[in-house]
Amino acid sequence: MAVRAWMATAGLAIGPLLAGGWGLAHAQAIYSCVDGKGRKITADRPIAECVDREQKELNPSGTVRRSVGPTLTAQERAQQEEKDKKLAEERARQAEEKRRDRALLIRYPSKAVHDKERAEALHQVDQVIQAANKRIGELVQQRQSIDTEFEFYKKDPGKAPASLKRQVDENDHSMAVQKRFIADQQSEKQRVNARFDEELVKLRQLWALQGAPAAAAAPASEKK
Fold first, then answer.
1. pLDDT averaged over the chain?
2. For residue 68, which of 47, 51, 55, 104 is within the disulfide window of CB 3.0 to 4.6 Å?
3. What are the angstrom distances between the C-alpha of 73 and each of 50, 78, 81, 215?
4. Cα 61 from Cα 20, distance rounded (Å)
């Protein structure tokens, strides 16, 4: 009975201590700030007198959990959001630029590799131009054959059959198409060289940062 009585008494005494410790461990944070008059204020919720200044949110132990910035007006929030958006866009742009730079270095570890790919790209365009020129040669031969037939109607071209006139029109149209196509391909060669020249400028910077020897030769388009 004496032991039980002691345990009961001890339980009554220890219970509040345990409850108090549990309560402290889970107590709400404390807010602290110095208002515009220089007064230090503490409260268990954000302090209205300090909405225009920084407040510190404290743990029950008194350590700083975080700093709470001043409450912003609608206009200030909009300005801050716009600023944050621009910062995020700039960070994304820089990250994308770094990604492209890494990809460029992986693809072109040296100027020799870059020059080889430039030559291959130009060669492909030249092959297309060569095919178009071949087609023009065929059209020239075709036109000579048509003109030979027209010799029979030299004195009176109006008597030439409609099919022969149609062949002339088709030949002229095909010749014009091929010439325009070749002009477009010549422009494509200029675009290819311009792209590789632009890449080479960037690559020289990246190679230099890596300590790789960047060749001092001028871009291919400048040699022409």
1. 83
2. 55
3. 14, 8, 12, 57
4. 14
